[in-house]
Amino acid sequence: xxxxxxxxxxxxxxxxxxxxxxxxxxxxxxxxxxxxxxxxxxxxxxxxxxxxxxxxxxxxxxxxxxxxxxxxxxxxxxxxxxxxxxxxxxxxxxxxxxxxxxxxxxxxxxxxxxxxxxxxxxxxxxxxxxxxxxxxxxxxxxxxxxxxxxxxxxxxxxxxxxxxxxxxxxxxxxxxxxxxxxxxxxxxxxxxxxxxxxxxxxxxxxxxxxxxxxxxxxxxxxxxxxxxxxxxxxxxxxxxxxxxxxxxxxxxxxxxxxxxxxxxxxxxxxxxxxxxxxxxxxxxxxxxxxxxxx
Length: 294
What we know:
294 residues, 31% helix, globular
């Protein structure tokens, strides 16, 4: 029996910012930050990426082909806790998913001014420390009890994650292209610095992914508790994302502080937010048209 549609779409007073306009804003600000003198420190990079999560690779899987599935919770998690792990947590994490694989993507960022190699061509101590940090996270995930605690903390044990292959991946964003590619021999050497499940790239490779136009940045504050940190100016309410978005609180402050969302658009998003949260919590939702949006 085919169920009827159970939601109502309202026409907004203004459409979201077009992706091309948003991309232009991001890349202009990003270039100014990266090329600034003095060079930006890690906390400045962290803040920028928190406000523009589409810049961080891995939302649609880091290893293998790009998935067509949105990441769990429809967002980039900043400073994600690893239950019982009392050392440095990742800077960011995507909970990417595909039809057969669940892939937490743990992201480590370092200051863009850090160098890959010494003058003698040896790996710098700073790079070694960053890769060692990733090795610690890999070792942590190697303990089955930790994996179960991780799934419970992020609400993954209640969903299809229990039925798919669990394959963590790791991303290190480090240094600038000019230094990393200055010597062909060192460029080749970079490809052998890490394991197959660890991807390294320079800051120059980052660019906004248009598939991530609805993805937010969020913070995990306890088992099953998440709050919105930032939303993109391209944000839309869509029935297809409502169920997972209903698990995240504090949307209104994140909408309010975005300078690239107009006042009428902010008012509309905030007014309609309770409706979509309530609808997202319904057990029976009926037919969903993937083209519907507000």
